[in-house]
Amino acid sequence: MALLITSDCIACDICEPECPNEAIQAGDPYVIDPLRCTECVGHYDQPQCQQVCPVDCIPQDPDRIEDKPTLLARYQQLTGLSGY
Predict the structure, then answer these.
(1) pLDDT greater than 90 at residue 84
(2) What is the DSSP string of 16-78?
(3) Does some domain include residue 4?
(4) Is the residue at 11 inside a domain?
(5) Is residue 58 a contact partner of residue 5, using CB atoms and an 8 Å limit?
(6) Which residue, among 13, 16, 11, has the nearest Cα to 3 in the 3D structure?
(7) Would the CA dihedral through 25, 27, 29, 31 be positive or negative?
(8) Number of domains in the chain
(9) Which end of the chain is more exposed for a tag (fewer CB within 10 A), N or C?
(10) Residue 39: which of 19, 16, 14, 9 has the closest Cα?
(11) Is 2 within the bounds of a domain?
């Protein structure tokens, strides 16, 4: 599943540079592009935006249920790489 940023976001800008897929955009609140979010599959073991968020406002998006193979396929499409 893709992640989303809730209205609890304090716009600290810590998450945006941590995203290896450039899926996070500034806004009110910040926004995660679900077509670019892989939950860091292929890059890291844990979603980096969740790891650095000081207010814990980046849950999984219940409207975008995706399994690990789907996220890995998106990673491969975005990067042109074939795996971890």
Answers:
(1) no
(2) GGG-TT--EE-SSS-EE-TTT--TTTTT-SS-HHHHH-TT----B-TT----HHHHHHHHHHH
(3) no
(4) no
(5) yes
(6) 16
(7) negative
(8) 1
(9) C
(10) 19
(11) no
Domain residues for the domain of 53 are 16-79
CATH code, 71: 3.30.70.20
Q: What is the dihedral of CA 51, 18, 40, 81, to 10 degrees?
A: -160
| Digit-coded pLDDT (tens) for 22-77 | 999 998 889 999 999 999 999 999 999 999 999 999 999 999 999 999 999 999 99
Upper half-sphere CA count for residue 38 (Cβ side, 13 Å): 24
Please indicate, yes or no, if residue 54 is contained in any of the structural domains. Answer: yes
Distance CA 29, CA 65 (A): 22
